[in-house]
């Protein structure tokens, strides 16, 4: 979130933005600009932590390394290689000053089901529950390799905005009348919310008619090196809509439009 909120020039910030709306950078000096820079500076301290029981936890995934000092083991060096959040494979090389037992905890994101953990190329045999930590408790040798697999299939999300007026009939019975009902869909992939630009280059919204199997309407496109894959949403009666990560629409340029929630035909809700 922090990196996506930063402007390409590294100085300006987009502190708040609506799900459907324009990206507007804070270019003048105020708390937005100082808060963003300070938050980035504090990020490494929460990426890796040691809990009260002495377990070493990996909280954030991204290329980098950390050195921790654990009782009875000495220095532990973690080297992390990954294209997360664009790809779901995380490789962590664990090197210890001397062989010893300690617990390595890997955060399993709440959105992720079907995560797997390998140790030196074989299944680690540990549970990977969404929203919890996977716990690898063992005697670590001098140089071992942990690989975390996080499936990232595109997902379709639904939301609704409904208003029902309740009144009394002359006989005192309750009368309910729906006066407003809108249904919307949005797309995510892994931890990233996806969005599209202005529909057809100029529309602020488009009412979509989804196929009967709406979840099958999503198609992940091949990714270019170093970029997240785009996703196509197939709708009836029009060309497929092309989605990209919300933060990356138009290269994070100031004033660009992003559309996250698009209305769908009520008959398909």
3D structure, described in words:
The protein is built from three helices and 19 strands. The protein is globular, with a radius of gyration of 23 Å. It starts with a helix and ends in a 5-residue tail after the last strand. The protein has 269 residues and is mainly beta. It is 7% helix and 42% strand.
For the termini, the CA-CA separation is 30 Å
Reported for the largest beta sheet, the result is: 7 strands, antiparallel
In helices, the fraction of residues equals under 10%
Tell me the strand percentage band: 35-45%
SS field, number of helical segments: 3
For the secondary structure, the number of strands is 19
Report the uncertain regions: none
What does this entry show, briefly?
This protein has 269 residues and is mainly β. The protein has helices at 2-5, 31-42, 44-47, and strands at residues 21-22, 48-50, 56-58, 64-70, 74-82, 89-96, 100-107, 116-119, 122-123, 133-140, 143-149, 154-168, 174-189, 192-195, 218-220, 231-233, 241-245, 257-258, 262-264. A hairpin with a 2-residue loop joins strand 13 and strand 14.
